[in-house]
Amino acid sequence: MDFHIHSEYSDDGSASLEDIVIEALRGGLVAIGVVDHARQDEGWLDEREKELSALRREYSQDIDLFSGVEISATEDQASPELDGDALNTVDYIVASFDQTPASIESKMALEGDAALVDWWSESMQKLLEGATGATVIGKPDRILTAKKVAVDSHRMDGLMEAALGSQMFVEWNPATSYPLQPFANDLGGRGAGRLIYASDARSVEELAEAIKGFTSFEAGIVERGNASFLEILRRRKQ
Ligand SMILES: [Zn+2]
Question: How close is the Cα of 32 to the center of ligand 1, in Å?
Fold first, then answer.
């Protein structure tokens, strides 16, 4: 399973929906989520949904095909680019930590890494409380790993509690996470079942590489999360 694949509906994606499905099947995946960046132009979601429906019919025996949009976790509002109707047409929303806000960058210049960790912890907490409408937290530790900032394990306790008790799922990104990050490690280690696999692939080649590079370590860490996320998505589709 891979719950975060970009298609050509993303400005930085190149794969057609059908090519994604074919590659996923070749790699033995049983469920995938096509997740594209939220766009402001109208109609793209309907268009993508039409295409997805046709593929669902064609490949219904072989694979579960879900739809998602990716928004920025750094916004106060979950869906500045999406209206309510659009949100109802997708299976899930991923709120991703894609970049550090400029205000935090300048705070870091004055206060150091602590400013980033404070902001990150608060943002995670807010997302885990479900206030934003998103159901998946994308690239949770990307900002930290990009800046090589480690979070003290004591500081993780509150977040861990919140994550374990939340309705949210948290992405495991092989390309941007690293296994020693305590947050991911704790979630997986405690068998919380809240981590889901997310390659964030932008092309068929990247998807093929992600499938090939999938390790037993990753399988172990996401197995339960993947299974329960799939179950929830299936139930909602009925
Ligand atoms: Zn993405």
Answer: 14
